[in-house]
Design the sequence.
């Protein structure tokens, strides 16, 4: 028995904020942002709530999976920008989707939130507690950004991605996952008392490369898979230099690593499901391929997941 991705979806706000727009807001330049991060533009949700973004992504994932929301057993939503302190954004999405009698909750693991959530979904499926699960990563980071702080405001964007997973009898499966946390390193990336993102970028950069490499190696070891067998790495999109350094350390060529950070910036919990949806839509992922997901974020949290699509 395995856990199979049967549908994916995304929601990206229409408004595009370019590096040139940011030049007019803070002391920065397109050249600095591009060379240090790889980001050219990001999306900003002016009129949509995080619930609306999440619902839109979920509806597309359900439609691509060919199932009705009433067939879901569980909704897990990863976000660091929930709509309200409570109820959970997952419950708000459940109501919008018209899903009935489902288990629904949020996961708070910042940028690692989506892989944490997918790992929990896999456990529910493998323990027999759920057959069909909706996993969403959704963020409205524009509300958590201090738009006067050039060291963070150029990095983040809004968006949502969703996947539907179900119990399967074929070879598709989540083969291995490793998830970690280290709260003593909280000061490297956290929300201040006003809710604004604060970060020690340089230290976090070094930690991110090391942590994701270790997690990827451990996931590969547990599954008995070598880096050469990987068809595509879909990493959290925090910085193209982090992604390139990780690929180099793993010995995986850059053409086997999915990158869309230039278009969306860092969308935290939404970045991996958005990238996954785009990679599948573009034909970069086919049934049977071995896919490696990895993320690192506030917590600190980090992890890696190996799946056969
Ligand atoms: O998603 C969760 C995980 N997130 C991450 O892992 C992010 C990890 N960190 C990074 O991606 C990078 O550290 C940043 C992109 C945040 C920063 O890049 P960096 O190469 O580490 O730059 P830095 O922080 O060392 O700053 C270099 C210089 C500084 O000036 P001085 O001290 O050398 O005079 C900064 O003040 O760049 C300056 N700077 C800027 N200049 C223009 C910082 N932000 C900006 C900016 N525009 N937006």
Sequence:
């Amino acid at each position: 028995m395995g856990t199979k991705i049967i549908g994916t979806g995304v929601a990206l706000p229409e408004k595009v904020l370019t590096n040139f727009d940011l030049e007019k807001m803070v002391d920065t330049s397109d050249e600095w942002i591009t060379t240090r991060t790889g980001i050219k533009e990001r999306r900003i949700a002016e009129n949509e709530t995080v619930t609306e973004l999440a619902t839109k992504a979920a509806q597309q994932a359900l439609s691509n999976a060919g199932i009705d929301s009433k067939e879901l057993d569980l909704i897990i939503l990863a976000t660091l920008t929930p709509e309200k302190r409570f109820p959970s954004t997952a419950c708000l999405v459940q109501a919008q989707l018209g899903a009935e009698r489902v288990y629904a909750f949020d996961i708070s693991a910042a940028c690692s939130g989506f892989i944490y959530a997918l790992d929990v979904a896999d456990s529910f499926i493998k323990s027999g507690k759920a057959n069909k699960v909706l996993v969403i990563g959704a963020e409205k980071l524009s509300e958590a950004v201090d738009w006067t702080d050039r060291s963070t405001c150029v990095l983040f964007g809004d968006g949502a991605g969703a996947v539907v997973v179900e119990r399967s009898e074929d070879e598709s499966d989540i083969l291995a996952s490793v998830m970690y946390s280290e709260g003593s390193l909280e000061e490297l990336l956290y929300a201040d008392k006003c809710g604004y993102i604060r970060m020690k970028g340089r230290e976090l950069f070094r930690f991110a490369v090391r942590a994701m490499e270790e997690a990827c190696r451990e996931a590969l070891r547990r599954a008995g898979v070598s880096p050469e067998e990987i068809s595509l790495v879909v990493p959290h999109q925090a910085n193209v230099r982090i992604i390139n350094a990780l690929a180099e350390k793993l010995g995986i060529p850059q053409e086997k690593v999915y990158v869309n950070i230039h278009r969306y910036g860092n969308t935290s919990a939404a970045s991996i499901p958005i990238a996954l949806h785009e990679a599948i839509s573009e034909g970069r992922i086919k049934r049977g391929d071995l896919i490696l997901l990895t993320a690192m974020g506030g917590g600190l949290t980090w992890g890696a997941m190996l799946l056969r699509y």
